[in-house]
Structure formats: C-alpha cells, structure tokens
Sequence to fold (218 residues):
Amino acid sequence: MRINIAIDGPSASGKSTVSREICKRLNYIHLDTGAMYRCAALHAKNTHTNINDEKQLLNMLETLEIDLTEDEKVILNGEDVTDEIRTDEISMASSDISTKKVVREKLVEMQQKMAENKGFVMDGRDIGTVVLPDAEVKIYLTASASARAMRRFLENQKRGIESNLITLKNEIVDRDYQDMHRKHSPLKQAEDAVLIDSSDMTITEVVDEVMRIISEKI
Ligand code: DC
Fold:
C-alpha cells in the first residue's frame, strides 16, 4: 500500500535530508515545498515585484512555473535555479513572500495537484495542517536552534562557504519567529503529527525512527 508522508518543521531541522532518504528506501517521490517558496521569492526579485502590492504579486504568480525534477533539480521558468535559491538573501525573502495569502493559495494548489496520487514525501511548514491534512503519516521534525546552526555551519564548511555560527543562529531564530507567527498557515505541529526532536540524533537515527512510524501504517 502506498501512502503520503508529511514532514514539517523549522528551517535547517533536516527535513529535506530525511525526506530524500525515506524516498530512497521506499522508492517514493520527494516534494520540497520550501524550494517552491524560494522560487516565488527569486521570481519576484527577477521581475522587480513589490511583494506588498497584491496586484503585482498576482501578475508575478501568473508567470511562475516550477518544476521539481526526480533528480532533485529545481527549475524555474525553464532555468535551473537549484543553487541560486539557497542563498541567505533568498532564504529570508522566501520567508517574507510566504506570509502572503495569494502566494500560499497558488502554491498549495500546485502542491495538492502534484500529490494527487499516493507515494509522496512532502516537506515544508504547513503540509500536515493545510496541504495534506489526510496524510497517513505526519512528522514534526525539530531541533534546538544551536544544533541547527551548527549543522548549517558544518555543511557550509564542507562546501567551502565561510560562515559565522552566531549569525547563522540569529538567522534561524528570526526565520523561525516569522514562520511561526505569520497570519496565514503558520508553522505549527499538526495535532496528529509525531514530534521528533533531532538535537541529539544522527540523520540515520531520525530516518530509522521515521521508518518505524511508517511501518506501523503500511
Ligand atoms: O524549507 P525552506 O527553508 O526551504 O523554506 C523556505 C521558506 O519558505 C520558509 O522560511 C517558509 C516558507 N515555507 C512555507 O511557508 N511553507 C512551506 N510549506 C514551505 C516553506
């Protein structure tokens, strides 16, 4: 039996890494909804859209085409933007644009269409609460801000990107606050989601725990 799995949680909690690993083990398809808000932010920047002007936002959304490929590439209007959407500037801009109702409505509709069939692992902020309220498995994955900042720091180091641990932690705390306190679909744990705090867990331990929860359902 194929099911849908919703993984929500704050930034840098390991949602994407865990989702990818689960997909490998189950041969499911991963949908990274954060990448879609990042595309919206990049497209708004490229089209000089004032995100506080709803008419301009609606115009921007009309020309927004996003393709998430099976090999985890992110294509925005035909262009590969996989790396370009991961900058600090776009991270904060995606959190800003995700507060806008018209943007959420459009992206949620796209996400629900994408996951019409079963066999998806979708990660984001509102998957268990809004996008897939009927998902058979819901996980709320979190970790302390210090642990998440340290992971980002080490990840950057590996990629040869210089970063400052305190700045990273401040950015994480700011984005958490904005994502959890916005008016429309704020980040929160769905009532029927299982909470996993990965502060002191390895990725493999988290994946094993999620697989155990899934195996109870299928
Ligand atoms: O998961 P991420 O860090 O790539 O997401 C970038 C931003 O997009 C995040 O700060 C909030 C927003 N987002 C959202 O509002 N709803 C989602 N389902 C996914 C992301």
